[in-house]
Amino acid sequence: MAASGFRVISSVFFFLFRFLLFSTEAVPVYSSHYCTDSLKFEPNSTFQTNLNLLLSSLTSNATEGSHFYRTRVGSAAPNSITGLFLCRGDTLSAACHDCVAAAATEIKQKCPVEREAIIWYDICMLRYSNQSILNNIVPGVDLFNAKNVSVKELGRFNKLLANLLNGLASKAENSMEDNRFATGEVNLTSRETLYGLVQCTPELSSFYCKMCFSSAIASVPNCCDGKQGARVLLPGCNIRKESC
């Protein structure tokens, strides 16, 4: 995915998002990726060796029962590299490992010579960069379900959605636990429920977690207004919503 824009909107990659039915042991499902094309390395270089070591380390540490891990390989620029993974907060350890392993393999195919890249799967995210300070807001990807909410219900839907996502964001960003993750639901009708999920990387302070969530939630009306389901994927956080 080229670096010509910081946000990508797509209705191609989406999922049947059901919190109660979703299996946290499912096969990893690719969602999207982003390569910073302006930053490249030479094949068989020291940077590539360090990248391989980094991806191996991330995969190995995904077996330790943690949903988040960050590390750095190399002692000095231009060959030092920082990387991390984040698994969905309710994902089982085995599923997290499988997702990180798939991401580590796929990111080398999607971004074969880039010094900075990020890849998202349905239940995990993996990124690396030659920069030690990582941007948590860009790049961003918006994914949505093509199905629309009934026009007569749109106003109520948007109000309930905003309250749900903002409430979950507040809960996650102020959490004292290592896993900054929250899910919730609200009844739309007697037969339809609106589900929400938010998560930010545990390394972020409450302030920066809030900033990331605010950016993600603010993008929903622009990318996905009236859509039954959507995901907003940022490097530092992600949000999801689905009605069924």
TrEMBL record:
- Do you know which Pfam families this protein is assigned to? Stress-antifung
Its recorded name reads Gnk2-homologous domain-containing protein
Domain Gnk2-homologous, by residue range, is: 29-133, 137-244
Q: Which InterPro entries match?
A: GNK2 (IPR002902), GNK2_sf (IPR038408)
Keyword set includes Transcription: no
Q: Mind listing the UniProt keywords for this protein, alphabetically?
A: Repeat, Signal
What are the boundaries of the signal sequence?
A: 1-26
